[in-house]
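Note to self: keep these together.
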Amino acid sequence: MGVEKREEKKIVVAIDESEESMYALSWCINNIISLPNQESSNSTILILLYVKPPPPAYSAFDVAGYLFGNDGVATLENYSRKLVDSVMTKAQKICMESNINIKVEKKVGSGDPKSVICGTVEKLGAHMLVMGSHDYGFFKRALLGSVSQECAKQVKCPVVVVKHPKNS
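Structure:
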């Protein structure tokens, strides 16, 4: 008899630069991945997903009417890269501090967060999506929409929305 290989569970955690998303990541590690009855954490892949805004369509002229040069574009792209690195480093640190042996993959998407998150979850065949809640009030949520609410409607796997204690 051969050794049966278990399917790896894929848990996607949507992260950004917010305290709420880092709390959701920590909560996921402590409350889902490290559960005593959980199968070996070696059979779980934690996928850190960061969605950066799409690159703006730069006009030939900026607001003041000056030519928007390559230096400005390069500066914005460099800032975006540094932000991604910073968020991923912070998330990786949370994973390492948990002292749980788990596979971690990092994914970076660009575009509308709702579309990118839902598309990535679908493409990866994720078993669960974990997101932090920014807990916007009624008016802000009405204007911006709720990414977590939209993802919960669209994806086919369970969605866990983690509320930060400061928002309770």
